[in-house]
Q: What sequence folds into this?
């Protein structure tokens, strides 16, 4: 019974985070929101008795995907500065 | 005996190490790269040989040491090795094609290419669903990255759109796989049964199958694919078009067993719609690669459809149809994309630079013809069998959509071909480099090898059927000889061929044999006048003549149709040689192919023929159903230029080269007549309920009258003769349609007669054109003084055409009118009278405006037509005079032929012929006319004595002497008053009809292609909508 | 042996027909004059013309085809006449009707027309081809009702042989084609107007409009041959119409049969003359359109009437 | 505007017609599927690996993992290919902040050690090659952030050879044991100890190394400049 | 009612909505990664059996009665691969976006429509 309560809480936070990720104007914060979704997803995997998946999702989903997104944004901002000056 | 798993292992091992090897020297990495690709090809080829010829059972390779459902297993059978052999082969040759680029580009492009080929091998071999997903991902990701190979500008956005669509499809695939696991409990296809999926379970199957179907680029949801085809480097795009689609197609084939029946039918219909619409949209394309994109999407759609429709056909048929289309698509697409790589010009009108390199032009021809389904290439056989299959399984919607689609295909392919061969070169001629030409020509070799293999293994065709193509090859080899030598050689070849097929079984064959073989032999003499080399001319000419011969001795429908297609393609190529023949030959090809398709369906409906006696005999006791009679008759009438479908005839005759047009009008039209006769032969015993031939008769009669009127209003001599052929063939068609003894005697008599005087007329006009270099009659005049021999030929021929008594023409007229009246076709007889009366108009026009009237200044010093034109003319004249003097020479044998089918309705004793209505004695008529001619001649010779020779302008004309011949030569718009009298009837209604039909299709194509807005997001939306629509249609 | 006799008979019947044809044209010229209120030339004027043209010393010629033009023309006339049996049953006037039936005769009419066209064309005078063009178009137009009439007659008598048709019309005057198949006869008579080239359809040989044309170019004996042909050809056509539609000339006594033939042909000719004298001339397209409208309709009705009633 | 409406319609239809019925008709399983049952019962003594997921990932469905490693490999190759040659940066990067530098030098060995621990014990505890590789990659990321120079070639060699060895071990499986990627080329050893379950630990650590170096490659490529 | 699967499908729908309506390329890729997470949630939720533990045979789960103590291991094995593939694809898409941005300086999907019809 405890599990379902946890899942419902985590699920609703994730849905809110998803809406935020889609509708926030600032790209960096929407990337962060996407990272949060993955993080909470790894928690849910724990509840679903799938530890391997939880670790992978935590490491890759929230960790690396967010890093890759930020790198991409840095690259794009980088290009803007080069061309401006 | 290497296990195929080593293909995956070696590719991966080398792939991982490639960047390291490259650190030392690019040469080593290149050798490793090409080594692996060749290794793959060799292993698969060895296995394919083992499966096909040694009957080795299908090989199953278990990984991880456990049996199937527990671990993943790979499978290699005949089908897998067939597909893999060709995908690896194309992979290897595309790599060779890109050798120059691979040498300079970043090493990771080689790795990507290698892993892509490995992905393809894996995808085809694996039996596990999730494993397919992984290999599909490998395939897609390496293709996404390779799209920007060769740094073409627009490829990045194309690649991104491709990714967006690919990613959506993979998500659906993953969902499908997982839910199938949920319902069936395991992931290996061999262990999943369709029964495990109850009503809602089939949604899982739907997700899986729709994902694959989207990867195969179905019609409305394939905008992304077109951008990729257009923007990406041509070497890579050929891999995408051929190798990727082959792998995904095989994936679709693998999961077909577990899909429910209604899924397959909807996918089949969606495939057909894709084929139809993408070919239609291709009509409006100007850019070569985008056009090829549309065409390859269409071909993939056709392949999916044929996979579905042949699901429960016998095994060897599936191999032929699906295998044939697959090889066809593979060769033509890879070849054409590589050619676009070689030519480097974007839109199709610049492809005429190909004329700079003869072998490339031939390859271009081979690929286009293979794609268009012209024999002997694989596509032709596959289409024939598919049509037969669809007809037997009553899938008429799919059949008509496929045929309409292939007609569109013919239109844009041959427009492209004629543009390349005919338009004048504007763009720069690129440098031809070796590696590209090597791999493209290799494809040409495969195409020819497969054509020969199918003909030998599947249909056991002997040498005689392949003779037309052999002739082209032989002449191509000896093409360096001067054209006169080649002309003589081909004349001997035709006579030898005639002698070879001489012992015919029925005398109808003998009669048409004389028309085709002897007629062509005499006509060839006129071609000896050519100077220089005239490359390729005699090859196609021999091809046409041999296919005429084969037509007569064909024993079954396929043989007849094969020869028919050879004849169409060779006559198309001959017409194409004319100076402005681009539009004319295109129109000819479109009409002939439409006719050919109708015939194909007609033959498919016809019952199977027993034994192998020639068609002429075996059709006598075959009950052709009504539908096949209608289709066949329309097909043959298109070929003989009947009313409504005649607009190609004047164009083809006028624009073809001088000596070619006599072949076309005198002999080619008779092929249509021979076909109609075949239908007639079956019609005799088994007349269908609805008397269709009555209406064919009316069409023939109307063709005659309209042909005569149109001929009278022409300014161009050859166009006038073309319309006159149309009108004469109208007579023959009407006579055959009567299906009575006298009808057929008159039809055959007129056919023979027409061949003779029409060839004589055309060769005479060819001679005049050779001298005066113009075809417009008002620019000639008064040539009687300069070219008396041609004048005599034309005089005698027009007397023969008009039917004025002493000559053979009257025999034809007498026979045909007696036949019509005795058969009860009274009104038709009246119209025919009117037609033959009107024929005087154009006959007088041609002889007056060319020979009589005022001689122009520039023609003061022209000489008589060259001897090569005179000889055949006078041979034909000899024939006409012989038949006029002794009509029994031909009436007796014809009577015997017709008696074979009907009771005889004429009595011949001595020289006079008695029908139930009237009588005619050719001999007496000839004598009396000679007498009536000599008497006044003598009177005049005696009385007139010395006449004062009067020079050209020594005439009194409105009280002053005319000085310029142009004004006083009555030739331009000679029957203006008649045209005014006809008023509304004179408008070119049929021409306008066909013109607006093509206009309408093009605007429809333009309307539909605007759904591809170019926005990646819209394409994803299209995909989602497509999934939903197919879901609703399937009613899962 | 009988060939020489046969030729002899043919010469006799040609002479008779030509003489009668020329006198007929002379009479017609007389009637025209009378209708126009003048005396007109004597009836034997055509004979004088022929003698006068043949006596010319030198004729001009534009080349061998120009020379052959009149020959073709006259051969056409001769041929048409020789294949029509004038008097039923008589050998002398049976001519060579065993050679062919009505179709042969109809196509022989074209023979003359075509030959003349070639000759005039060679003449180099622009007006002659124009005249020929009009002549051919008009011929193709009036051919339609004529052929429809011929077809309906063929249906009616189940034969195209002229002799059998004439035989079928013997007995009383009532079983002439005129009464048994009136529609066909009307259509044929209208097309006869076109054939004879009298007033309403005389645009082809209208001397006033094209002042020079063939008559002037072809002078001397060429013109003579043409004029003899005009007589013979007219006679041949009239005899054909007589045989087909007006019971032909059949009487045991040759002279009486010839008399019947002369009377009948005279009246047939008078029909076209009366119509010609009282009608103005049509323009070319009017005449073509005229023939393709009502006469063709009558012809079709004739066929439908005979075939299906 | 029309596109918005159409997308709404598409998604609503998709959800209602395809996702909803799927959702309603797939209640939770109450027992293992036959295949899963086989893995549960025979899995341990077949391969001797306590962590069944690892057993499935490495051996039973070894080809998947090989494919997955290839996917990462070609992703790296593709990104490298797309990004093209690196531009030499003219302005020198400003040095990392004090906190980051000290923290990194302290944390780095621990992270690397933790990563190695994960893929060494892949067959015993949850986690394995992928997770270990990613942890190592984040460690290396730390070094990149404080832009310590490190030799890229070492990683290139490491990446290629780990992949190559992985494939050779797989090939050995055919020669020595039952089939490609079979782990019984080494003795299964005692259940639950570190050197047990045949070649699984070896394969998984190779995969870990491979994934780690590839992710480093991706990050390096995407940073764009040297 | 399988809660996690509902959550998964909802995430997929939100991700799809983002992909279809957002004009910014990065937002589209974020939408894609949300879909990816959603799909992975669905896959794992399929394997879950109520009241059972992780598929690791250690002290608490003996080899004998493992069959009715553990959760279905296969979906977790599949998800492992799927997550990594998701990362690879996202990284590649981002590279495409970077290069596209380099070429014509705009992140909106509507500016890349030169290839059409």
A:
């Amino acid at each position: 019974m405890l599990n379902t309560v946890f899942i419902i809480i985590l699920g609703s936070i994730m849905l809110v985070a998803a809406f935020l990720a889609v509708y926030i104007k600032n790209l960096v914060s929407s990337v962060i929101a996407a990272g949060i979704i993955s993080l909470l997803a790894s928690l849910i995997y724990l509840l679903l008795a799938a530890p391997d998946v939880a670790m992978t999702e935590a490491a890759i989903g929230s960790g690396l995907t967010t890093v890759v997104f930020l790198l991409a944004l840095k690259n794009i901002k980088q290009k803007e500065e080069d061309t401006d000056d | 005996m290497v296990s195929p798993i080593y293909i995956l292992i070696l590719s991966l091992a080398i792939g991982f190490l490639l960047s390291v090897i490259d650190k030392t020297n690019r040469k080593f990495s290149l050798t490793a790269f090409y080594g692996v690709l060749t290794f793959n090809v060799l292993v698969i080829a060895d296995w394919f040989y083992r499966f096909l010829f040694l009957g080795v059972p299908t090989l199953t390779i278990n990984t991880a040491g456990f049996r199937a459902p527990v671990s993943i297993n790979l499978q290699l059978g005949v089908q897998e090795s067939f597909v893999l052999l060709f995908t690896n082969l194309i992979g290897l040759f595309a790599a060779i094609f890109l050798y120059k680029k691979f040498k300079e580009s970043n090493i990771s492009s080689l790795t990507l290419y290698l892993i892509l080929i490995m992905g393809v091998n894996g995808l085809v071999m694996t039996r596990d669903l999730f494993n397919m997903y992984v290999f599909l991902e490998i395939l897609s990701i390496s293709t996404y990255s390779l799209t920007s190979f060769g740094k073409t500008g627009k490829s990045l956005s194309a690649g991104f759109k491709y990714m967006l669509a690919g990613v959506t499809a993979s998500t659906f695939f993953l969902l499908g796989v997982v839910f199938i696991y949920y319902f069936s409990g395991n992931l290996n296809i061999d262990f999943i049964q369709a029964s495990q999926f109850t009503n809602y379970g089939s949604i899982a199957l739907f997700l899986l199958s729709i994902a694959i179907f989207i990867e195969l680029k179905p019609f409305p949801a394939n905008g992304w694919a077109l951008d990729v085809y257009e923007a990406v480097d041509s070497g890579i795009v050929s891999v995408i078009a051929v190798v990727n689609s082959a792998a995904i197609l095989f994936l679709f084939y693998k999961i077909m067993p577990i899909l429910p029946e209604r899924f397959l039918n909807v996918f089949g219909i969606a495939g057909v719609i894709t084929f139809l619409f993408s070919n239609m949209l291709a009509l409006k394309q100007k850019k070569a690669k985008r056009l090829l994109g549309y065409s390859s999407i269409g071909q993939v759609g056709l392949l999916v459809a044929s996979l579905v429709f042949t699901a429960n056909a016998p095994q060897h048929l599936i191999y032929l149809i699906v295998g044939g289309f697959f090889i066809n698509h593979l060769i033509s697409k890879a070849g054409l994309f590589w050619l676009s790589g070689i030519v480097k010009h974007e839109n199709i009108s610049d492809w005429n630079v190909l004329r700079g390199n003869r072998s490339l032009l031939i390859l271009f021809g081979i690929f286009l013809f293979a794609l268009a389904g012209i024999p002997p290439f694989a596509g032709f056989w596959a289409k024939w069998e598919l049509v037969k299959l669809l007809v037997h399984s009553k899938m008429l919607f799919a059949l008509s959509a496929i045929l309409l689609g292939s007609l569109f295909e013919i239109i844009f392919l041959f427009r492209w071909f004629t543009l390349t061969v005919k338009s004048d070169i504007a763009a720069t001629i690129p440098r031809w480099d070796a590696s590209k030409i090597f791999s493209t020509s290799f494809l040409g070799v495969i195409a020819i090898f497969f054509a020969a293999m199918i003909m030998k293994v599947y249909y056991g065709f002997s040498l005689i059927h392949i003779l037309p193509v052999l002739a082209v090859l032989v002449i191509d080899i000896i093409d360096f000889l001067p054209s006169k030598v080649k002309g003589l050689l081909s004349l001997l070849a035709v006579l030898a061929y005639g002698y070879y097929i001489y012992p015919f079984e029925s005398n109808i064959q003998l009669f048409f044999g004389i028309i085709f073989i002897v007629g062509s032999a005499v006509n060839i003499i006129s071609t000896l006048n050519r100077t220089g080399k005239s490359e390729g001319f005699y090859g196609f000419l021999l091809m046409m003549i041999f296919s005429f011969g084969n037509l007569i001795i064909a024993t079954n429908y396929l043989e007849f149709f094969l020869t028919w297609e050879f004849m169409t393609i060779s006559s198309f190529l001959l017409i194409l040689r004319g100076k402005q023949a681009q539009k004319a030959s295109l129109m000819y090809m479109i009409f002939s192919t439409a006719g050919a398709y109708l015939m194909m369906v007609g033959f498919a409906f016809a019952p199977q023929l027993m034994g192998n006696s020639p068609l002429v005999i075996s059709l006598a006791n075959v009950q052709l159903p009504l539908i096949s009679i209608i289709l066949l008759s329309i097909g043959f009438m298109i070929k003989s230029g009947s009313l409504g479908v005649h607009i190609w005839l004047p164009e083809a005759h006028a624009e073809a080269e001088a000596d070619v047009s006599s072949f076309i009008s005198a002999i080619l039209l008779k092929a249509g007549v021979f076909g109609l006769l075949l239908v007639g032969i079956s019609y005799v015993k088994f007349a269908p309920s609805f008397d269709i031939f009555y209406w064919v008769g009316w069409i023939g009669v109307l063709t005659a009258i309209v042909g005569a009127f149109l001929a009278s209003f022409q300014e161009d001599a050859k166009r006038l003769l073309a319309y006159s052929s149309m009108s004469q063939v109208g007579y023959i068609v009407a006579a055959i349609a009567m299906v009575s003894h006298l009808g057929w005697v008159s039809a055959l008599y007129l056919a023979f007669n027409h061949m003779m005087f029409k060839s004589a007329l055309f060769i005479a006009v060819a001679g005049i054109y050779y001298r005066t270099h113009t075809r417009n009659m008002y620019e000639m005049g008064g040539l009687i003084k300069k070219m008396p021999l041609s004048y005599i030929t034309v005089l005698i021929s027009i007397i023969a055409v008009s039917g004025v008594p002493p000559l053979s023409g009257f025999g034809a007229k007498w026979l045909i009118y007696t036949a019509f009246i005795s058969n009860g076709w009274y009104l038709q007889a009246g119209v025919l009278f009117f037609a033959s009366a009107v024929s005087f108009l154009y006959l007088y026009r041609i002889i007056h405006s060319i020979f009589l009237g005022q001689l122009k200044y520039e023609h003061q010093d022209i000489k008589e037509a060259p001897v090569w034109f005179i000889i055949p003319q006078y041979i034909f004249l000899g024939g006409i005079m012989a038949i006029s003097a002794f009509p029994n020479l031909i009436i007796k044998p014809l009577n015997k032929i017709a008696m074979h089918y009907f009771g005889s309705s004429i009595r011949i004793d001595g020289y006079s012929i008695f029908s139930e209505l009237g009588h005619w004695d050719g001999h007496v008529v000839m004598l009396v006319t000679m007498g009536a001619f000599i008497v006044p001649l003598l009177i005049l010779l005696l009385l007139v004595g010395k006449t004062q020779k009067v020079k050209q302008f020594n005439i009194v004309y409105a009280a002053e002497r005319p000085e310029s011949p142009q004004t006083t030569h009555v030739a331009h718009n000679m029957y203006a008053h008649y045209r005014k009298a006809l008023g509304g009837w004179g408008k070119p209604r049929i021409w306008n009809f066909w013109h607006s039909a093509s206009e309408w299709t093009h605007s429809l194509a333009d309307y539909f292609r605007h759904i591809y807005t170019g926005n990646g997001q819209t394409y994803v939306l299209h995909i989602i909508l497509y999934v939903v629509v197919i879901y609703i249609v399937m009613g899962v | 042996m009988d060939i020489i006799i046969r030729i002899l008979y043919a010469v006799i019947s040609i002479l008779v027909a030509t003489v009668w044809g020329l006198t007929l044209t002379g009479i017609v010229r007389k009637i025209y004059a009378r209708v126009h209120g003048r005396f007109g030339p004597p009836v034997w004027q055509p004979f004088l013309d022929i003698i006068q043209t043949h006596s010319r010393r030198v004729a001009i010629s534009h080349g061998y085809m120009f020379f052959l033009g009149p020959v073709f023309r006259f051969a056409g006339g001769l041929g048409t006449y020789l294949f029509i049996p004038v008097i039923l049953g008589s050998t002398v006037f049976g001519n060579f009707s065993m050679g062919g039936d009505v179709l042969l005769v109809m196509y022989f009419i074209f023979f003359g027309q075509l030959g003349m066209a070639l000759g005039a064309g060679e003449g180099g005078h622009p007006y002659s081809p124009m005249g020929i063009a009009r002549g051919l178009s008009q011929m193709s137009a009036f051919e339609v009702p004529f052929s429809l009439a011929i077809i309906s007659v063929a249906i009616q008598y189940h034969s195209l042989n002229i002799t059998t048709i004439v035989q079928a019309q013997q007995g009383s005057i009532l079983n002439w084609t005129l009464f048994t198949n009136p529609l066909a006869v009307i259509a044929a008579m209208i097309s006869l107007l076109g054939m004879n080239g009298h007033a309403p359809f005389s645009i082809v040989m209208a001397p006033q409009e094209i002042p020079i044309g063939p008559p002037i170019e072809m002078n001397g004996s060429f013109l003579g041959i043409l004029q003899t042909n005009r007589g013979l050809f007219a006679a041949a056509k009239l005899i054909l119409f007589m045989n087909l539609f007006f019971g032909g000339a059949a009487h045991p006594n040759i002279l009486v049969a010839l008399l019947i033939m002369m009377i009948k042909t005279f009246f047939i000719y008078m029909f076209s003359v009366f119509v010609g004298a009282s009608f103005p001339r049509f323009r070319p397209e009017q005449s073509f359109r005229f023939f393709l409208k009502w006469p063709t309709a009558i012809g079709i009705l004739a066929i439908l009437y005979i075939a299906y009633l | 505007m029309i596109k918005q409406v159409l997308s709404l319609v598409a998604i609503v239809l998709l959800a209602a017609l395809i996702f909803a019925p799927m959702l309603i008709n797939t209640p939770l399983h109450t027992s293992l599927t036959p295949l899963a049952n086989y893995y549960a019962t025979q899995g341990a003594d077949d391969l001797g690996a306590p962590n069944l997921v690892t057993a499935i990932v490495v051996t039973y469905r070894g080809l998947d993992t090989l494919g997955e490693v290839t996917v990462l490999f070609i992703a790296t190759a593709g990104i490298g290919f797309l990004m093209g040659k690196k531009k030499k940066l003219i302005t020198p990067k400003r040095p990392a902040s004090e906190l980051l530098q000290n923290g990194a030098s302290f944390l780095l060995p621990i992270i690397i050690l933790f990563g190695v621990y994960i893929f060494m014990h892949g067959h015993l505890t949850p986690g394995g090659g992928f997770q270990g590789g990613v942890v190592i990659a984040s460690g290396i990321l730390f070094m990149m952030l404080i832009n310590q120079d490190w030799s890229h070639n070492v990683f290139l060699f490491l990446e290629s050879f780990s992949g190559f060895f992985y494939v050779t071990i797989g090939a050995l499986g055919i020669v020595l044991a039952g089939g490609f990627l079979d782990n019984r080329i080494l003795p299964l050893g005692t259940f639950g100890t570190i050197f047990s379950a045949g070649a699984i630990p070896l394969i998984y650590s190779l995969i870990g190394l491979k994934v780690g170096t590839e992710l480093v490659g991706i990050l390096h490529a995407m940073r764009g400049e040297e | 009612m399988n809660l996690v699967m509902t959550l998964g499908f909802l995430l997929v729908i939100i991700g799809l909505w983002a992909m279809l309506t957002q004009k910014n390329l990065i937002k589209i890729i974020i939408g894609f990664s949300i879909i990816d997470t959603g799909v992975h949630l669905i896959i794992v939720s399929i394997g879950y059996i109520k009241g059972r533990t992780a598929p690791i045979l250690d002290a608490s789960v003996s080899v004998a009665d493992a069959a009715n103590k553990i959760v279905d291991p296969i979906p977790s094995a599949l998800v492992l691969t799927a997550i990594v593939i998701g990362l690879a694809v996202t990284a590649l898409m981002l590279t495409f976006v970077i290069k596209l941005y380099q070429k014509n300086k705009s992140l909106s999907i509507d500016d890349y429509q030169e290839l059409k019809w």
Notes: Residues 2-84 of chain A form one domain. The CA atoms of residues 43 and 54 of chain A lie 7 Å apart. The first helix of chain A runs from residue 2 to 23.
